[in-house]
Amino acid sequence: xxxxxxxxxxxxxxxxxxxxxxxxxxxxxxxxxxxxxxxxxxxxxxxxxxxxxxxxxxxxxxxxxxxxxxxxxxxxxxxxxxxxxxxxxxxxxxxxxxxxxxxxxxxxxxxxxxxxxxxxxxxxxxxxxxxxxxxxxxxxxxxxxxxxxxxxxxxxxxxxxxxxxxxxxxxxxxxxxxxxxxxxxxxxxxxxxxxxxxxxxxxxxxxxx
Length: 209
Known about the structure:
- The protein is mostly helical.
- Helix content is 79%, strand content 0%.
- The protein has helices at 2-20, 32-47, 54-77, 81-99, 105-115, 119-130, 136-154, 159-179, 184-208.
- Helix 2 (32-47) crosses helix 3, helix 6 packs antiparallel against helix 7 and helix 7 (136-154) runs antiparallel to helix 8 (159-179).
- The longest helix has 25 residues, at 184-208.
- The N and C termini lie far apart (79 Å).
């Protein structure tokens, strides 16, 4: 019995020791200016999570920074896109897994959106406003495709490449909606008219005040 309790105690101790380990910033061999740029970029993303625990904040910040470093290292290492993409895929799932040690699912979503300019929520909301008659199953499909695009965009080395992934999936969404009978040109024009009408209405309210 004592041996069992000792074994359990050792396992718990090892778990707590592992959980207490800090995530180191992978800054060795990198220019100070580059590291500062990445840290500042990452800090804006992590600040949005409102983490009050200092140690937890530091670990999450370093995970995000290190992800940027990893993407840049892989992009710099390979000139062959196939080799580069294969290497990125090998490391793709590490990021969310590392974040999951400190964040819940909704916070991880915020980090991913922060690294991809908030394109998923913005584009999804735009579709809802542009086509108010979307069915629930259509809304879900649009959101899932946008999130799929985000997974590729996270690993893209620059803003142009990130937006390129979203552009590809937006095209897929538009083609799919067209096949389902939506007249996107008419829907978009009607949406613009609603936006303009809302602006004029707000201006009238402001003038009355």
